[in-house]
């Protein structure tokens, strides 16, 4: 698995799209090569983590995410791991064109009854970052069936139905156990419903992660990973004592909000603030030391804020 160095950065779909354009325009990599690399990474991942799951069904959409699925099926079939691959085309037209070019691939007859229990693993290539509207009723029924299958579900680039920018489920979405995503992590995989629907996210940046970072100047957001938090907390030398480790003032604790005050003050202590003072209402001040004896408390009245 190839994981980018900037793997805590999250990108929007327009940032990824513009970056792809930049790559193609500057001939850093061709469109076909990028698709090939994407499919190859997925093949490697599946061979490494799911080699015993031989009976594979791939749901194929009409965009390039669907193309990823067809390329992947070809690679898996050639991998000599005795895979049995079934392609399920969401769109009749793309089914027809693929049938002409890939006559040897088994295509599920959409008129028949779909029984997912005969398969070992599901690959979701219905929509990637090109999702631009809500999922219709017919597709929703299929997605419900996929989600109820209890099989491992690998979503390619994005769980289909999940908005890549805000993590919103667009009517319905595939609930992936794994998402294999390309070039950069997408904001929507880590926010709102994205966390629930993306499963374990693996990033394949094809060695272009640095370039993406440079190109975008600033990502949409960053993940607060434990290693980043550790870097932010200053190292405490042995001779240091409370007066040498900063002083935090927490103001709050209005009527009925005393808990928030204590939680905020405790957090300040926990991240290493040497002294923590709370400024709160008189009726709360006496309770502070009962809850957290290290805290210093001061009170204020309405009058203090009049001048
Ligand atoms: N550009 C490239 O060369 C690469 C693209 N890649 C893949 O391409 C994907 C993006 O491809 P596309 O831009 O073709 O987008 P998608 O493959 O996500 O699908 C777009 C198509 O789906 C239709 N669509 C969108 N929402 C729909 C809905 N709710 N109901 C029905 N139809 C809907 C659109 O009209 C369009 O025809 C990425 O997520 C990634 O998987 C990767 O292979 C890497 C290389
Ligand atoms: K997908």
From TrEMBL:
Its cofactor is K(+). Signal peptide: none annotated. Binds 1 potassium ion per subunit. It holds the Pfam family YjeF_N. It is an enzyme of class 5 (isomerase). GO terms for molecular function: ADP-dependent NAD(P)H-hydrate dehydratase activity; ATP binding; metal ion binding; NAD(P)HX epimerase activity. InterPro entries: CARKD, Ribokinase-like, YjeF_N_dom, YjeF_N_dom_sf. GO terms for biological process: metabolite repair. (6S)-NADPHX binds at residues 64-68, 128-134, 157. This is NAD(P)H-hydrate epimerase. The gene is nnrE.
